[in-house]
Amino acid sequence: MDYRNAFAISATGMTVEKTRLDTTAVNLANVHSTRGPDGKLFQPLTVRVAEGQAAFAAGFERLAGSHQLRGARVLAIEPTAVAPHKVYEPGNPDADERGYVALPGVNQVTEMVNLAGALRAYEANVVAMNAAKTMALKALELGGGQ
C-alpha cells in the first residue's frame, strides 16, 4: 500500500486549515480598523476551498492505482459582502458629519467559531497523518521480520 497518498491528503488538509486560521486572524485583527492602507474600509475575508476528490466511481480507479489522490485546496481568499456597522464616536477623525464611524462587519463570535473549527480540523489531519505513519511503520516491522 502506498502511504504517500494518505500523507498528501492530510498535508493538503492542514494547508487549507492553516489558511483558514490565518484568514480568521486577519479578520479579528481588523475588527476595529476604520481604514486600510488603501484608505478603504476593511472587508472581512473568507476562504473558498475545493475538494480534490472526484466522483465516487473514481475511487475504484484510485484503489487500482491508476489515479493520483488529491486533497483539498484553497481556491481563493475573497472579501465578503458584509455590511459595515456604525458606532457613535464623534471624536474619531474617521467619523461622519453625525459622529458615526463605519467599522468592518466582522462578527467576532462567528470568527471564533471558525477559529475553533479550523483548529479541530487541523488536529484531525494531524491525527490522520500520525495514524498513517504508524501503519506504515508497522508494515515495515512486519515485512522486515521475515
TrEMBL record:
<protein>
    <recommendedName>
        <fullName>Flagellar basal-body rod protein FlgC</fullName>
    </recommendedName>
</protein>
<comment type="similarity">
    <text>Belongs to the flagella basal body rod proteins family.</text>
</comment>
<dbReference type="GO" id="GO:0030694">
    <property type="term" value="C:bacterial-type flagellum basal body, rod"/>
</dbReference>
<keyword id="KW-0969">Cilium</keyword>
<dbReference type="GO" id="GO:0071973">
    <property type="term" value="P:bacterial-type flagellum-dependent cell motility"/>
</dbReference>
<dbReference type="Pfam" id="PF06429">
    <property type="entry name" value="Flg_bbr_C"/>
</dbReference>
<keyword id="KW-0282">Flagellum</keyword>
<dbReference type="InterPro" id="IPR006299">
    <property type="entry name" value="FlgC"/>
</dbReference>
<comment type="subunit">
    <text>The basal body constitutes a major portion of the flagellar organelle and consists of four rings (L,P,S, and M) mounted on a central rod. The rod consists of about 26 subunits of FlgG in the distal portion, and FlgB, FlgC and FlgF are thought to build up the proximal portion of the rod with about 6 subunits each.</text>
</comment>
<keyword id="KW-0975">Bacterial flagellum</keyword>
<keyword id="KW-0966">Cell projection</keyword>
<feature type="domain" description="Flagellar basal-body/hook protein C-terminal">
    <location>
        <begin position="98"/>
        <end position="142"/>
    </location>
</feature>
<dbReference type="InterPro" id="IPR010930">
    <property type="entry name" value="Flg_bb/hook_C_dom"/>
</dbReference>
